[in-house]
Predict the 3D structure of the following.
Amino acid sequence: MQAAKSKFAETAKSEIGGAANTLFSCLRTQIQNKRSEATAMLEPAITMLSTSIDKFKSIDSDESRVKISELQKQYELAMQKRKEMDDRFDQSITELTNQQTQLVDGLLRKLAG
């Protein structure tokens, strides 16, 4: 009887873990895809700002120094926004992983109980 119960618990653990992993892997992939889309929208602006700063540096005039200062502020803001965005995506993935662990652990505790 104990051996059958143990075998059932192992099979349930494997099946539940596998199903949860499939589901949560799909959700993580969706988050990563959204991250890629958001990055693809932001990166061209960051590259353009960086290129513009470099071009104005090559001019080296009072007017270009003012423009560099303005562009540098925009560049720093864009970089800050990218970091905040990355942090939010990282947090979402961490939360999803925690939810997966809680779900699997909760189901297995109910089966064992």
The chain has a mean pLDDT of 91. Residues 2-59 form the longest helix (58 residues). The chain has two helices and no strands. The two ends are 16 Å apart (CA to CA).
